[in-house]
Each structure stands twice: as C-alpha cells, then as structure tokens.
Input
Amino acid sequence: MNSTLPVHMEACYDQGLLEEAAKCYMRRFFEGRGRWLLAACVVNVLGFGAALALGAKFDLIMVWVAFVVVVGPLYCAYLYFLFPRRYASRVARFLAPTAHISFTESAFEFSAKDRVVTVPWSQIKAVWECPVGFLLVFSQFVPSFTVVPKNGLPTSTHEFLDAKVREVVG
Output
C-alpha cells in the first residue's frame, strides 16, 4: 500500500500535549456516542422524578435507581473535566519526554523507558485527527486511545495516517 513504510520517528510528549489530546478525544466522544450517555442521564432524572411524583415507595430499588441517577451525570462531568488531566499524568509517566514510534503496514509500535508496545492495526477502531496529533482509538465506548503528535511528524507518516483515517472510517 505505501512504499515509504516502515517509518520510524522520535516523538516528543509533554503533559500539555497529552492533556490537549485527551480533551480532543472527549469533545469527539460527546459529539458522537456521548450524546446518548447525556440523553440517558436526562431520561433517568425525568423518570426518577416522575416515579417520586406518582408516589413510588422509596425502598431498596429506589435507592439503587437514585444511585444511578446521581452517578450518571457525575461520570459525564468526570469524563469531560477531570479525565484529560488524569490521562495526561498517567500516560506521561510512560511516554514523556520522548518515545520512539514505528509504523508498519500491519502494526504500530511505541517504545519508551525500556518498554515496547506493539499494536496491530486491526485493534484500532478509529483514527481521529485533532490539532495536536492523531488519536488512535481502541474503543469508542470507553476512553481508550493513544496519540501520535503532529509536531515533527514526517510528511510520509502524516499521509499514511490520513489514509488510515479514511481506511478505518470507510
């Protein structure tokens, strides 16, 4: 497919880049599947309020429902406001300040701080482009992704990832 592969590069990571990538992921998440999560929270609150208004007994089942009604919006708030910082601090311990990244036709590989992780392209569910880099998404239901920074990205690698965006989406 691409005669410029394999590609090897050194990528610079810092807390700011990782946090911006996580914020980009959360924006995309809430623009897509996350809207359903927010809608479910609203439906839960309305249903719980209607049940109480119609005279439902506040028994053990209602305690469980109340727990779900409270936890749903708190989880959404956590994802949007706190997750990016926590993600950045966790991932920075592994990747910062630099990591070696390799792309081949079948997989990509990160190596940093005496650790090597190889991920086949078949495990990537989506490739999203954002201002700071490309997000390689492992799951669109839970926040599971990694970022390849655009800063210092060779043109051939940028083109390869653009093609992966189209390939995974298409």
